[in-house]
Write a structure and sequence with these properties.
mainly beta; 5-stranded antiparallel sheet; 4-stranded antiparallel sheet
Amino acid sequence: MLPEVRYLTNASWEIVTTRAAGIGHPVLLMHDYNKAKLFVLTIPDNQGDLYNYPPGVWAKVREIIMKDLFVRVDGPMQVALFAYDNRAFIVESFRDQKETVKITTAGTFTKLRDEQSGAVLTGRNEKGMTVFETEVLPHSFRVFTAKE
């Protein structure tokens, strides 16, 4: 169950929405506020239901929230990203099974060094970003450094 969010339709835009019985309910709203943008994420009545949002919802939320980071991770819920200011980052899985995740780096970062194994991953260019696919084992983490 999502709470009802009331907003002015001419001033706010639904970035992600859901529909039930022909009625739309915003999941993520954007509102221009002065020279900035305000985003509102609708939290279900039972906060644990956040894990039930489809992967496409979280991909859009991550895209917006992480737009200024040098790295972004797309994957299922319960896969976390911890980014540091030295081009290092950790991808951690809290899931019960092995997962494939997509890591996207910005700018000139075209390689990732796995700091645990020493292996170097090479990505593919997609729309000016470099995309890597890798696996994360259950209840484990991977440590990477972005390289040019």
